[in-house]
Amino acid sequence: MNADVLDFAQGPQRIICLTEETTEWLYLLGQESRIVGISGYTVRPRRAREEKPKVSAFTSAKIDKILELKPDCVLGFSDLQADIAAALIRHGVQVTIFNQRSVAEIFSMLFQVAAMVGQAEQGLQRIAAMQADLRAMQAAVAQRVAAGTKRPRVFFEEWDVPHISAIRWVSELIGIAGGDDCFAELSLQSLGKNRIIAYGGAIVQRQPDIIFGSWCGKKFRPENVAARVGWGEVPAVQNKQLFEIKSPDILQPGPAALTDGVHKLHHYILQWMDADLKTGNTA
What we know:
The protein is an alpha/beta fold. It contains 12 helices and 11 strands.
């Protein structure tokens, strides 16, 4: 007997995730059975690497392998995956490319994906819990500022040579965590090439109190930062406030950045603020 032509699947059943954030979110929603392929860069959750075939890098993908998996939806991120999306669309595949750059846009993406798989209510509950957590961070910071400390100046280095400063969602999370991004004006530039700080002296002039490094998968070397010419004048170097935030925890525009990534920022920033309160060094 032929299937009823009026029947339809309630949401995609065979999803390819070209980036990590949608994979992690679908696992958190308990919808991992819908995923049939993931990015080779996926490390969150760890079990995804063992359970799902890897079909893409970031700007390239195994189109034939994706087609063999017969996806009914492919989820990706940013204009950098436009060529992959175009190739799949030409083969008749449904593709959704998100382009979230801010914290609010990340929340919007999470809700849309949750709704696509019939988990809108659960998605909203999880989003609300993350928002409450972020507001608690803001309250902890406000309490310390009221007690007499200042917010530290923060330089977030997304790459070392050339120096690339924080993208928008990272800059916003630094603010939520209690710091002030030294190059907040550059964070609105979505492309890394437009956030390059060609002259290291410009960073020294901003006098960051804390430096975070997240070198896109390459290990952050605080000793290399401290050894840069002229950087001995930087408060962060003088006070050994140089810390790594691993890129999967903060440069993923999804659940990781809004949870583990911002918590690590908040930990080091509160540590600095508490020391500042203790010494009374609020100049």
